[in-house]
Amino acid sequence: MNKNEVKRVFRMFTIADYDKEEEFLREQHKAGFKFVRFQFPGFYYFEACEPEDVVYQLDFNDNIRKQDKADYLQLYKDTGWEYMFDVFEWSYFRKSASLEEEEPTIFTDKESKIELINRVFKRRMLPIIIAFFCCIIPEIIYMSHQWTKDGSDKMHALAFLVVYVILFLIYLGIFIHCGGGLHRLKKDYENGLK
């Protein structure tokens, strides 16, 4: 294996898939590629390395002030976690699994895991829900009304109506996937399954 080899993989993970993202990064490291960089919209960059079982963990750190960041990172460093970088308020950490007797995790109890889900919901899902009910649904109603009125702007109203209906379907898909995924994770944490 060439130590200078760099691999780029495109993958999309939503806020409800962070556990799947952690597993994806772990499998890559086991295969001899350590995660080194992320580029929007979903490009993961890996460098060749010796295959090793390395656990990757993500933490949503939306409420950490800049002056508290050093203390936050030191806490993880003291327990053996290597901080990598932040992407959209998610902090990436990794730690060798072979050095531990049990599965390493950055969360010490289920309450911390549940709090993570609550923070993600409040900071990521709530704004989407607000935009949905304050912008998209009123526009669909307005454009439906415009389209049914007599006048010369019927095609214009229909075009906008189609755009807003498509946005409605996209948002609905996001609600179902992310909301359902976050609910599943929360239940798993409450029941001690993860």
Characterize the structure shown.
The chain is an alpha+beta fold and 194 residues long. It has two domains: 6-99, no CATH class; 110-190. Helix content is 53%, strand content 20%. It has a three-stranded antiparallel sheet, with helices on one face. Helix 3 (110-148) packs antiparallel against helix 4. The two termini are 34 Å apart.
Keywords:
20% strand; three-stranded antiparallel sheet; 194 residues; alpha+beta; 6 strands
What is the CA-atom radius of gyration, in angstroms?
22 Å
Low-confidence stretches: none
SS-based class:
alpha+beta
Q: What is the N-to-C order of secondary-structure elements (H for helix, E for strand)?
A: EHEEEHEEHH
Percent range of helical residues:
40-55%
Question: What's the structural blueprint in terms of helices and strands?
Answer:
Layout lengths: L5 E5 L7 H13 L2 E7 L3 E6 L5 E7 L5 H13 L3 E6 L2 E7 L13 H39 L5 H37 L4
Antiparallel strand pairs: 1-3, 2-3, 4-6, 5-6
Helix pairs in contact: 3-4
